[in-house]
Amino acid sequence: MRFTTDGLGVRQNLWGRTMAAAVAAIMGVTLLTTPGTSTAAEYVAFADPLVNSFDPFDMTLRNQAPVAAPDTLTRRLLDERLELRTLTPSTNAAEMGPIIRTATVERGDTIIDLLVRNGVAQEDAYALVDSMRKVFNPRSLKVGQEVTLTFPRQRAGGGSGPVTSFQMAIDAERQIRIERSGLQTSFTAVEVRKELNRQLALASGEIRSSLYEAAAAADLPVSMVSELIKPFSYDVDFQRDIQPGDRFEVLYERMVDEQGRAIRNGDVLAATLVVGGRSLTLYRFDDDWFDPNGKSVRKALLQTPIEGARLTSGFGARRHPLLGYTKMHKGVDFGAPTGTPIMAAGDGVVEKADWFSSYGKYVRIRHNGTYSTAYAHMSRINVRAGQKVKQGQVIGAVGTTGRSTGPHLHYEVLVNNKQVNPKSIKLPVGRTLAAAELKKFRQTVAQVEKQVASLRGASATLASTTTATPGRSTE
């Protein structure tokens, strides 16, 4: 029985040195032998099921047909993974490693385009994408995303074999990995998530022009500012109450990877806002916000159903900017750019969502048997009549439809179907914690205060944008 090389004309009996080469091939290692000349013959094998499932004692490659020839694809892959070839003694073994290609998604690319352009056979490209759909929608591909492809090296200077793996980061936390399955044109896809660690962070600052600017100066993410505004909106009118010199302090979570890099933000755990000398502290507990006494801050209606807007006209008699005479203004106006999201002031059912006379695009929500709210001059409506909505849900966007001089939200509060001044009504409050819940809440508060104190002492830079640390309410 003999093992025949390809193109060398070297035939050696498998007893002796060649026996060692055959054993080495089965074990998945590389062995060099010198058949009496300065040229070395290298047996190249990989420790994988494709190679190990074939015994070199039962078949010869290339020049002699085996008793039971494998199919074309199997034969091709065998030739690429287990081959006898000529090398000079100076050849670097690293040159026999896999070929790795990195490609970037360009404008107008589909995933098929990218794969074929980078050397993946069309049949493999379609099979790979079909597998990908189980974990990722290929239509969600974004310009600039990077893809890594791995191919087996066919021969020195001879190109690559069929693609064996595909990797692509979906975002900072998730990655897709796709591997060829067995010998055929089929692939297995999995989504891999990074292991993240929870880290606490404390941000504080003094408001000089706006809360958003002060938060940015304190490295507090914009998303956290939006989350912070919502629970305070029940008691603070961010368009009228916030003044220069007011302060804030926020304890929040950051999720970091093994290198300590921030991947995403977690929840806001506690926050203090000092407004006009009045200190308000809120704590997250049981998916709600509570004051230090364990009373939920949630009320029937938000003070302001829009973020980052300015009050341009209050409730009451005024000279109408278009009609030119004094007319009762039965709501309040908030100036904001077209497209700014508008939120439902409270839970309820949409009574009307359509064009309504001089109001333009208009939504009215019934919250209970007494209270309703209305939103006018919208550029877009996201809800329909009869739909249930939750407090804070985006129902549309600011516009200037109907009788309007510019983009703004006209907002009305109705009590028993009559418009009233939103600032004049007393709204029902949320739940108060019972004894058992209150005990757990107080334990949470104690832990949070300990964490805040620790973070304050750990970094002197926390007060870089403020002259004093906000006091925390204990009322």
UniProtKB/TrEMBL annotation:
Domain of life: Bacteria
One GO MF term attached to the UniProt entry: metalloendopeptidase activity
Cited Gene3D superfamilies: 3.10.450.350, Glucose Permease (Domain IIA) (2.70.70.10)
Names of required cofactors: Zn(2+)
Record carries keyword Repressor: no
InterPro entries: Cell_wall_metabolism_enzyme, Csd3_N2, Dup_hybrid_motif, M23ase_b-sheet_dom
Cell compartment(s), UniProt: Cell envelope
GO BP annotations listed: proteolysis
Domain M23ase beta-sheet core residue range list: 327-422
Keywords per UniProt: Hydrolase, Metal-binding, Metalloprotease, Protease, Zinc
Domain Csd3-like second N-terminal: 203-315
GO CC annotations, alphabetized: cell envelope
Protein name listed in UniProt: Peptidase M23
Species of origin: Tistrella mobilis
Lineage, highest ranks first: Bacteria, Pseudomonadati, Pseudomonadota, Alphaproteobacteria, Geminicoccales
